[in-house]
Specification:
Layout: H1 8-29, E1 31-34, H2 41-59, E2 63-66, H3 71-79, E3 85-88, H4 90-100, E4 103-109, E5 112-119, E6 134-137, H5 143-154, E7 164-167, H6 171-179, E8 185-188, H7 190-193, H8 198-201, E9 204-213, E10 217-220, H9 226-238, H10 243-252, E11 256-259, H11 262-266, H12 272-279
Parallel strand pairs: 1-2, 1-3, 6-7, 6-8
Antiparallel strand pairs: 3-10, 4-10, 4-11, 5-8, 5-9
Helix pairs in contact: 2-10
Length: 280
Amino acid sequence: MRAPRLHPLFRLLALMLLVIAAATARAESAFILGLPPVHSARVLTERFEPLRAYLEKQLGQPVRIESGADFRRFHNRLLSGDFDLTITPAHFARIAQLDAGFQPLAQFAPDHDALLMHAAERPLNSVADLRGKQLAVIDRLAITVTATLQYLATQGLEADRDYRIVEHRTHASAAYSVAGGLSAAAVTTSQGLKQMPDDVRDKLLLKKHIANIPAFVLIARSGMPPSRASRLKSALLAFPRRAEGVEFLARVGYTKLIPVDAAEMKRADVYLAEIRKALK
């Protein structure tokens, strides 16, 4: 006895359900690379595409880049386990390690730095000249900003009392704020300087090198099997030995990708009290 034929509409519906199920399965099997929101989504995707493509080949599964709308939401996503591998500021990585058992695998080198800059036409004779004025930053939760605010506090300047903080999406945007006279100074880094157009950077002067800061840490999500984390770490450390890895590091402002140890992670501890307070 022949089985009854399905109505064409039912066949179409069944096919659509199969396509949706397949797409869902592919999405669920994707490896998620989390990136800090230091650029627009487009620029992040372009700059980190070589690493994404490399990991996809090494892991044998799709790798997708994701981020957060700002540092707070990015950090919340990190702690929620939304990312399999996260490139994150060292103080966020340290919190994830201590509070949630995340596994630090590698770190960029050289260090970041925290730099205070001002306009050549409107110089700051001392940091005390910030009093009553505006300081441009990329995000109040950035580790370089945390270090700068701590330094200014030692000089008797308290944020939101003696000067006003204004957040910008990128280092370039903060630089425009200073060059245009909206802000008296800005916090940036050596990597951030490379993001600024030459005509803007030429209008600015570095006022103060605040501190050397541990560079971004690459950290595996909590619960990742040790064997998989070890494989991932080996792949990451091998990347700089490839031509595309060398080119990638130069593009994002680093020279090395190195193993990260306990002593290096502890360097971020000096910022934890301040950042935990800010995250509340």
